[in-house]
Amino acid sequence: MVTKIQVEGNPAFARIPPWVQAKLRPIAIEKIQQVYDWIENECVPAERIYKAQLKEARWTTPAIVTELRKKAKAQGLFNLFLPNHFEESPGLTNLEYSCCAEIMGRVYWGAQTLNCHAPETGNIELLAKYCTPEQKKKWLHPLMNGDFSSAYSMTEPDRASSDATQVGIKMEITDKEVIINGRKLYGNCKYNDEMQIFILMGCSDPNNKNPWNRHTTLVVPANTPGLKQVRNLSIMGYDWAPEGHGEYIYENVRVPRENIILGPGRAFEIAQGRLGPGRIHHCMRLIGQAERAYELALVRCYEPRKKPRGKFIGEFDSNIERIAEMRMTIDAMRLVVLNAADTMDLQGNKAGRYAIAQSKIMVPNALLKVIDEAMQIYGGQGLTQHTPLPEIWTYARFVRVADGPDSAHRHQVGRDQMKTAQGFRERAEKYTARYKELCKKWNLEPEEFWGIV
Ligand SMILES: Cc1cc2nc3c(=O)[nH]c(=O)nc-3n(C[C@H](O)[C@H](O)[C@H](O)COP(=O)(O)OP(=O)(O)OC[C@H]3O[C@@H](n4cnc5c(N)ncnc54)[C@H](O)[C@@H]3O)c2cc1C
């Protein structure tokens, strides 16, 4: 395949670093251009239409999104996130998709119009990896086709869910069915009737000696009797309609045994497999959100009606420096995300573990500050519904917790790093031994260095 699209000087590629541009194949160049045109022409101008339609029917997908999804599917823009080693993939690598995802992130619901939103991306990847052909027909294909949507349900109110071995919702597995009892927190809201399946992790064998073999993952249809949504959880005051986040009670919920994915007691194999690209899709899109915040700040810097002491806001030195910091932070965070995506492509998800954690920890924390500074430049209006900044900030804040809190990732990185200490100690001892030889040669008395004698 060849492409006539010119990358140089093209705004769709302006923020993509040269080392990534050099790796883009023609198929990726075509898709990035299409996604850019899509978000710029179809989504950004429709932001207020979306809000107005949502006001009318809070738990119904706005008509504009439904229409755009149909159109996007017809243009071959669905499911771009699924990496090219899957037979169902549209063909992009993780690195190539990162460039698309950033652009999608410019509008909070942009990814949804392209079937690239959370938790669909992680769920589709999970189903593509672990389902039997019959299960794929029932759940994977309709999800990829956008016929219904899904939720991922692991977190519980009564357990420390960052340690998945503690997940406690009870699953009693019989010859024919699984009976589920307990509580769950999060997982999209079933007030929206497009949400039709939960991918649920629960405890099926609590007395198994191996804590990694106690859990099972299965699919629960949202309309199963006994499954009750208690309420929608607001996130920092926002209801995140029309998808929302539910709080659920399972009371003798029965699903056929065939709904188990991979097999009883194999939830951790699935959880391990879910630790790939889905973990950083939020980070990829957050870069796009931060770019929007940055652009809004620049727009405000030269707003002629806002001239404190007769100067444009952008003429104050403090804001010139602020803009510089914002620019450099976004660019640095993009490199972190792109590196994680490239590492997964080149060395696999397991080898990418450190780069994924680095992205999960650094990107939302750094971009929270960028969005906060954009609000500061905007002044009072920046904290109101006159701008999308409060929602963008809230999104960055929730990325610090969703898919595992950053402290847990930091803990893992730190523990892995501690394992390298002995190697450095041995190296330091070698330097000291050589130093002692040199002292002898040059007739000097050795001194203590680095606390090593
Ligand atoms: C907006 C949003 C959407 C979400 N969507 C979903 C969803 O779709 N499905 C789903 O199942 N869940 C979802 N979650 C839940 C999220 O995945 C969990 O909240 C998260 O995994 C942490 O679990 P927990 O709340 O039980 O916190 P805990 O496990 O109790 O952790 C609380 C705190 O303890 C500390 N801590 C925990 N582990 C460590 C460690 N190893 N080292 C150091 N400190 C540690 C940290 O300070 C951490 O923040 C969502 C959360 C948010 C905010």
Describe the 3D structure:
Residues 268-415 form the Acyl-CoA dehydrogenase/oxidase C-terminal domain. It comes from Paraconiothyrium brasiliense. Its cofactor is FAD. Keywords: FAD, Flavoprotein, Oxidoreductase. Pfam families: Acyl-CoA_dh_1 (PF00441), Acyl-CoA_dh_N (PF02771). The chain is of the alpha+beta class and 453 residues long. It has three domains: 11-117, Acyl-CoA dehydrogenase/oxidase, N-terminal domain (Butyryl-Coa Dehydrogenase, subunit A, domain 1); 149-265, Butyryl-CoA Dehydrogenase, subunit A, domain 2, CATH 2.40.110; 275-404, Butyryl-CoA Dehydrogenase, subunit A, domain 3 (Up-down Bundle). The protein has 15 helices and seven strands. It has helices at 18-21, 26-43, 47-56, 63-74, 94-104, 110-113, 120-130, 133-145, 267-273, 281-301, 317-347, 353-378, 389-399, 406-418, 421-441, and strands at 149-153, 170-173, 177-185, 195-203, 215-221, 227-232, 246-256. The strands form two sheets. The chain has a four-stranded antiparallel β-sheet, with no helix packed on it. Helix 11 (317-347) runs antiparallel to helix 12 (353-378). It starts with 17 loop residues before the first helix and ends in a 12-residue tail after the last helix. The model has no long low-confidence stretch (mean pLDDT 96). It binds flavin-adenine dinucleotide.
